[in-house]
## 1
Amino acid sequence: MEQVFLKYIDDPNQHKIDTYIEHGGYQAIQKVFKEYQPTEVIDTVKASGVRGRGGAGFPAGLKWSFVPQNTGKPIYLACNGDESEPGTCKDRVIMENNPHLIIEGIMICCYAINAHHAFIYIRGEFAHPAARVEAAINEAYAKGYLGKNIFGTGFDLDIIVHTGGGAYICGEETSLLSSIEGSRGNARIRPPFPAVEGLYKCPTVINNVETLSSLPSIFNNGVEWYRSHGTEKSPGTKIFSLSGNVNKPGNYEVDLGTPLSYVINDLGGGIQNGHKLKAIIPGGSSTPLLMPDQIDTPLDYEAVAEAGSMLGSGAIIVIDERSCMVWVLMKLINFYAHESCGRCTPCREGTAWLKQLINRIENGDGQPGDIELILDVCDNIMGRTICPLGDAAVMPVRSFIQHFRDEFEYHIEHKKCKVETDYPFV
Amino acid sequence: MQGRNGLPVCVKNMSDNGKEKEQVTLTIDGKEISVDKGTTVLDAATLMGIHIPTFCWHPKLDSIGACRMCLVDVEKFPKPAVACATEAMPGMIVRTDTDEIVKARRGVLEFMLLNHPLDCPTCDKGGECDLQDNVFHYGIDKSRQAFTRRRVIDDQTTDAFDDKRIGPEIIRNMNRCVTCYKCIRFNKEIAGEYDLGAYERGNHTVIDAAPGEQIDNFYSGNVVEICPVGALTNTDWRYKIRNWKAKQTLSLCSHDADGQNIMLWHDQRQLWRATSRRNDDIDDGWICNIARYGYQYINSPDRLKTPLIKKEGKQVPASWDEAISLISKRFKEIKDSKGSVCLAGLIGGNQSVETAYLFNKFFRNKLHTNNLDYRLEYIDLKGSDETEAYNCLYRAPFTIADLEQADVVFVFGSNFIKDHPAINLRLRKAYRKFGTKVYTANPVETKSADISLDEMIYSPDTETAFIAGLIHAIIDNKYYKNIDETKAAEVKTMLAPATLDEAARLCGIEQERIVNLAKVLSEANNPYILAGDYFVASAKRHRTANGMYDLANLLGIKDSNAIILASQANSMGADRVGVRPRLTENLKKTLIDKWGEELPESPGSNTSQILNNSLDEEIDGLFILGANPAMRYPDGPFVNSALDKLDFLVVADLFETATSAKADVVLPLAGWAEQSGAYVNVEGRYQKFEKAQDADKGIKSGIEIIHSIARAMDLSLNLDNAALMHETKDIVDAFEREARDEAKFFEVKQAQIPEHDNYPYRLLVGNDIHHFGYVTEHCPSLMRFTPEPYLEISPNLAEKLGIDEETLVRIESTTGKLVLKARFSEYFEGDVLFIPNNFSATEVTGLVSREGGGWVKIEKLDDK
């Protein structure tokens, strides 16, 4: 299968500018500068159908076209590298291994939307990837690819690396903007949408690392080539971060629409020790479960949605028969309660309450009625919060209870796991 | 239109003021309404009388949609929307009462109560708590909480209720907090303060002072008032009285000139607190700490409660009858033996306009003297009145709210936050919301200049040179409007220093910055020049005022947009009713019409002339009503000897003061809250305040005192209170001012700056940020902010002189000396010192000369 992001994953020098150029890097941007007007760039990206790889899958070209060009204010690009969704490590591999691909993507986007300042917001824990990106940016400046008058076109661009302070919420786009501005990472209400009033109250585009990294390939190979990968509505390739009870966990880049079973069984080498598959989290920890009978679901936005879940960030977590689902859910809800920013009431108080309730079931203190209470609390959080974190916390809770209610009831009644296992973590 | 809590609904977008707004029609709960485009669903619903509950919403703060209480159902929206931040759109169909919405709101309340201590019986907010009200309304009768409730305690929470003091006045109880962020948002958005913040995350979020800091900013009281629950309370009010047992009375801040609207809470015993009473024309519902805590002097146990009469050099208690008949006898004697010109009256700038008017009528119409004044704070002019230019600018028809339409505001000689708390906030709002550009020029760095694009610091006493420089810059660069080149050349000859270069050098500011300011002002569509207390307190203010007049004319600045701001609650009122020796022709006519008698012909003396004349034994009898020149007027030794020289001095005041100590008769005076009346604020706006409580039996109001003296002298003023109020209002309304003459230009000549070889440092004297005048010493809350006088010094200068913080420093001028603790300034950088003149124990005016302000030398006191 043809790859975009991980093509040169085995070249230890791919992060260096000379190697990147040797492999055809910085061709796309020169082509763009030479042959395209900014609006044509947007049109091309629209035509390519590339969708946001951060999780929501919003068409990138359409997002760019919302940016008003006549406000007299500067326009900013924020590249979201705050990859924190449990199970997800796809942006990390690009930042570490192929940082110039991001820079080239940022250049294309900035040219299209007429931005002269771009920020790369990198998760605080990603010290090594941040250092790699920083070094790559310095290389690009030294070559004259960044700064004033790039390639003699008169176009100026500065890229600033901003590392986070360890908050999951800063991966949410409005919190990310608050954080760059130096404020506490709190979500903001929309509207106004960032495209109109974002960073420093100026029009701002926020794109994921993987989204921006897709761009050079579109301009190098053409829209048709790009659309030849993936499906009609979900074109292109995507990195899936495969983890959990599989033999070969890792980042795999495949065409969108590839069956889930191909990734788990053919690329991931199947379930550990031949155990029985129990459930799959297909798109990062917040997405609802897929069951074993759904293993042939094609990995594209539409098909996964139709199967009752979301493609999300593409983090596939495989759970086999040895795991107690109450324990797994406890791990997840503990994460979300810890990461709630505290801005809005339902998420702030609700996730903490869910954490208490699910922990007490896991600890053998569950009471009759707890499951109903948990579901009711979920109702009071779902769709009631400023940002998607509340929903993200609730979706796995609902899904786990929907599919494995018996395990929860067993836990409450017998004060222990239904699953008898020697699995070391449970 | 009245909205929730009786407050006017804020639906107008001020940025487009004057233009007809586009209308939007939407349906809420089945009823249609048309509103201005930009109105939120919440405001639209409020207009229709539909109540949508909120916690984090505030009409004057940006909506953040955090509490999720105002969720409403909007047709075609995928999920409920927050009414506080959803803009009304044409054809929108909103429901506020669906089962889903009610469930959502009950859910929010349940979440809020989850870890709430439910300590209503011991909570001070009970009865005025949004959480109580909303839970009451939505009827959450059972708790599903099965876990131990979260308590937020740290090593500084000592109280049984987990209270923690986070400021001189403010106490935080995090257990009750619903995390609406209103306090932090107020601080950041409105006051521009960063001493309060949110720490930790999720449901561990705590609202706390920034590390190592406390919430002591000048507007900090507002965070208590806008707290929807009992999380933030203040020592002023908490645990003293239940709010429903206190009566509320409409009142005004009795200190500065902005006229902030307040509500006094009281019972028959005393005043208990002051809260804001939103007036969008003035204060937007935010009041400064002086307006909030500055009522407390009324409650002071140190109040004078019986008249004192000096017998054998000692003041001893006496009856009112005795005191009044003595006054009447002595005034009569002086009048009969030496003539009316030997009597004089001085009245404080925070007496009601009615008192001021009656004072005027008594002196002019009954005692037949023009010797009276209300300007007791600043160095006076040699002539009997301010100059034409000064008066014209002082009485300019300025409107606070119009500042929002300003594109450039030049603040000249003012620490705005201190001098004009409400105007300061309005300016910050203009800056934040409407992009108004602010420029400042001051003798020192000031706190409120943080929004200034160029904070210019001129050398002491060079205000005139600065403004002359600005005029040079305008003429040299042809920035002027409405005049031709010949006239411009002529104006240029009226300036000293004679060139921009010289002027810039003299005031120590680079030419380019002065030229830039001139350019910015000339290019602005609606520029303002606002002059404050540093300007007013400067000895040569009339020269600078000439410059400001010329400047406004050269740039074609609107008459309302160039103003010298008055400083006390009723300064403008006293001015309008004529408490000054020289009156405008218009006012003379009004008074003659009213009184049916000619006015006395003697020229009349102003404050400094009255004091001088007393030294020369030309004034024998003086009546000082609610003022303390011995403490506040420059050159203390001079004032003291002038007062000593008087044959007969009557002082009416709330407290024994340095001035009353000199008096032959001291009369206990009622405070503003003990009478009804009105103040005329800096804009010339007449605002009434109501009587909150009766004064002690032994205390009389200024009006009663004047009437009693008049009666005892057989000079009936024949005005009952209603008639007085009416007559005063007529006089205030009859005020007319000649507009600034755009063709007129005055000389602008910098005065010789005297040498101060042995006294190298400029001393500024004025109000501490948390004090005003001489009564705030009697306000315990304000004393918690600034408990004692100090010498404010820049860290640079302190280092140069080897002075540490908190060490004693001797300050010496030609007229006096003083020892004070040094305090490092957060703002000062140069060789300028500041001492507050709000503390009776510090005779700071002894250091200040009447001619040229304060010049001092300082030295560290040896540690012995």
Note: The interface with chain A takes residues 63-69, 71, 78-80, 82, 85, 87, 103-104, 107-108, 110-112, 114-115, 144-147, 178-179, 181, 197-198, 200-205 of chain B (CB under 8 Å).
## 2
Amino acid sequence: MSIFKFKTKYAVSAVLSCVMLCSCMTARKPQTEEMFAFDTYVSITSYDPSDNGAKELLAALDEEFSQTYTKNANAINGENILKCADICREWNSEFGDLFGESINFTCGALTKLWGISGEAPHVPNESELSAALETITDENTPFLLMPSGTMLDFGASAKGFACDKAKALLDTSGAKCEIISLGSSTLLYGAKPDGSSFKAAVKDPLSPSSYLGTIETDAAFISTSGGYERYFEENGIKYEHILSPQTGMPVETDLCSVTVIASTDIPNGGIYTDLLATAIYSGGTSVLTEFMEQDNGFGDAIYGIVAADKNNNVYVSSGVDFTLYESSGFKLKENL
Amino acid sequence: MKAQVSSSRRTFKPSDIVIAVIAAALLAAVLIFRSIAEPNGSLAAVFFNGEQIASLSLGTDGVYPFDEYGVTVEVTNRSVRVINSDCPDKICEKTGFISSSAQTIVCLPNRISVRIIGNTDSNIDVVLN
């Protein structure tokens, strides 16, 4: 009788531990959801058991920002667009001296004219270009007072802004670990259940299906800018998607990929890394080195950089845990 | 008295061993089932607008046209690529083959994405674009 009881206990505990072991293994597997928003592919990978609404948040933000594709600036309204514009203005007053006017969110008409991400990209003629350039105005002008032909384009900031909003949402919902990728901007939130650091791969600009290397980091905002993926060719010439608000032409740069990383403790770190990646990419190696010196000059670097130039050099700022893949053919420039 | 109790606890009866073996076998069966159901990187999943529309075995080479969605996908040598798309930018075609679960092929104009499903040896959490 007592032996039978013991047996039952053993059997029950054996089965239970078996079930627990299996469910443990299932729980460790993150779930990935995907969607298209902000004119890019979005993936949300969650280690958390419950849905915390990140997908809905991103869909709502995308909906709000999408009015910029069709409406003129003076007809734009929306709490988040206004907030995003304000942070862009702050960023400009902080970094404008270094980068010049490499980014201007009133360049929507120019972006639309080229249509690089659209169905029929083409090189505009002189008169089309100058007409579009004339619509680019001072970012500080209130939307309502902008010239009638001016359109807005938050291509260099909206995805980073969305990462900031997502971070705030996850903070309030008590999320533990999420990886939200909006293509060029990524939020690595919380910490992985196994305690390991996040590993983000930087694409090889010369061969986008392989990697330049990997960055290991704790929770962070990461943004990447480069011309190697979104471009079109006309008469044998490549035209990249990042346009200069001065010339109206694709930016001329000696860099091919710029990644900027900041801790999730940095306020507006999502939008700032997004803007910085584009500004540094547009500015080229001279602006890159200047920025790396300045940022480090304030003490500990706030923004980490991994950048690749067209001569196969890779620049890594101190404090970034970057592993270069030898197979990429790129060489590390001495740490700056 | 005390010694007797502890000695009886330490003794494994043949029946206990049988139960232990059964439990171990059960665990092994579950693990084997899991690995058969989802072997390392065995499937390429094709998504439209975030909804899965197909899963292709990486163990079988083949060309899969998705005419309705404007793309054709090829599985060769345990990797997958978009070989043809009616989109204007052809970014999906230029991406080439992927074989790791961290990588994704995206066709933005057609709202198509292709991913490897399951555990692969990749420990990369995200690929920056």
Note: The longest helix of chain B spans residues 14-37.
